[in-house]
Amino acid sequence: MDLVLSLLPLAALADLLNTAMVIGITALALGFVIFVHELGHFAVAKLCGVRCDKFFIGFDVGGYKISRKIGETEYGIGALPLGGYVKMFGQDDNVANLADQIEQSKQLEGSPHAKQITGPGGEKLWVDRRSYLAKSVPQRMAIISAGVIMNVIFAFLFAWIAYGVGVPETPAVVGSATPGGAAWEAGLRTGDRIIDLAGQPNPTYRQLQQAVILADLEAGLPMRVKRADGAVEDFVVKPNIVGLAPMIQVASSVTAEVAQRGDSTTRPFTPAEGTDFQAGDLITAINAEPVASYADIARLSRLNKSEPLTYTLQRVKGDTTESVSVSLPPNPMEGLGVVLTLGPVSAVQADSPAAAAGFKVGDQIVAIDGVRLAGFEEEEGALSDSDTEAALDPLTLDDRLAPAAAAQQSVAVTLQRDGETAPVTLSVIPRPVTWEGAPGGETPASIEALGVACSLSPTIAAVVPGSPAAREGIAPGAELLKATLVGFGKSEAKKTQAPQRISIELSGGKQAWPEVLWALQDQGPDFRVELQMATGEGDATRTVSLKPESVEDAYWSPRGIELEQLSETRRTDSWAERSKLAYNETLSQLSGIFRLLQKLGSQVSVKALGGPVMIAKVTGQSAFEGWGPLLMTLTMFSANLAVINFLPIPVLDGGHMLFLAYEGLTGKPANERIMVALHVAGLVFLLGLMAMVFTLDISRLLGIAL
Hints:
This protein is an alpha+beta fold and 706 residues long. The chain has 4 domains: 13-167 and 610-630 and 663-673, no CATH class; 171-252 and 572-609, Pdz3 Domain; 254-331, PDZ domain (Pdz3 Domain, Roll); 337-547, Pdz3 Domain (Roll). The protein has a 4-stranded mixed beta sheet, covered by helices on one side. It has a 4-stranded antiparallel beta sheet with strand order 10-9-11-12. It has a 4-stranded antiparallel beta sheet with strand order 18-17-19-20, covered by helices on one side. Helix 3 packs antiparallel against helix 14. It starts with a helix and ends with a helix.
């Protein structure tokens, strides 16, 4: 015990030192990107004979700085870490001081150390030969553009080094598609690997995300997919704007290798908890059927979720490999006994049984094989109490259709369709569901066996007899307003912590009930759900606290095994191959930021922008992950800095280039009043932009929605 206690402070100190090291690396890395930008200006200015008075990383606001003068230049680090600058003799970003410069020029007239130049009004001025203003337009253009050029060069170099070190990338393999999302609607599912994305072979998940954000929403994103069974199919996926930017709503995949999360390889309160799964174990078979990837695990788990599963594991111990078997019982599904009214079809999946049968968006399912669903009962053929939850719960409805899917027998689905006075009955052959779908935020309820997603009304259609909801006296007709998860994610090891509370809004058309049902699964004994509902008696509301219970004959396919994220390392010793990869990455980052700026405000919300806090957070996270990810983040940051600085905004390098181009064409600088007005406008714009991104950064840190 004494030994353990003495080691605890050392472990805490090690964590603290590790965090401090990452913070230090992050600061140095971001500072280096700014340094090379300013170095470009400094080096070319020196080559052109310009005297440089200051070279600073950060801004010495109020005189707060660490500096040292070497020769004619003061080198330093300013207190405000928002960039850097090189102060060149004769350069004044405040064009309002031009009159003073003209007055000073008179004192240099005829001096051998001075040179005559043309002023804004065509007048002749004398300036020091080592002044920035004494240099020709091409020389000043070279000085101004050198910072951006250095950023582009170093973006390439960062990527080039990264591909030599090794860059872990997540391949574009579908782990799950969110029901009703663009990928789900197109027909993508677990195990699909995108092998071509709009002409780009074997894209990474990161490249897929970037392509989706910048895609043409009308034309869609063409992709070629290799399915889990080896078949190759072509798709066109049309992204939807979800939140701040376009998405297709797919999650990346995991592997068949057991992972360790925290101190365990299994999740608490699941069949796998406490069993002999070890980090690094490779699942090679389930119930004697071979497993090659996560798609096989998902398929076998889904098809056999009501049966025990025996996992065959390949375990490496030193120089030996052994085979280990672990059996897990089924994982009962948890529920509250509340059944909501199934709403109209909101999406029909391409090439699905529903699409083949002629389902349309807006159709209202009212009965399956003559059994009317809760909320649509008639005296004849009304849904029995025992069938209510199994038929209507979004997480168990597929179970009702599973026997017909296995036998490939048709079922009759009765619909109410807009424009039709009589019900429409369609004959559909359900399909076996062999993949995983996961709700993400506001998600409709999916009937995967048919290939439709349906909205859910917050009105309670039925209450299962004997369920937690029934014991609390909840009655059909009440309208759910909010669900609060109390003790979500709480494990036995964290019993001393205050219960975590997560509130999910259900009113106002929000499609969040599937997320609530998903969250009920595999929770601890202290977990509760507080349901707030309108009772229908005026404005009266009622809140009840329910403890989920197992649903009879309903099972959850995951058994609680932690699996490693799918990752592939891109690394090469070939200089030519590294150069090609680095060139493509740099070009992708440069063009990506240009295209993002074009989409900003229309396709991509300005709320998606991030400032220094987000930049530091992303860089720090990549530093934790290793040198490869850190260098790739610096490639992105350096390319972004190059593009942003070269935008034609006065005060920025791009604005200076614009004025120099005018001077080169006309033979004289732009009019002083125009330059002053444009500089003021540019400064106001940049200050406003900085204030906005700072506000967005702080709101994210505090969890405040803007």
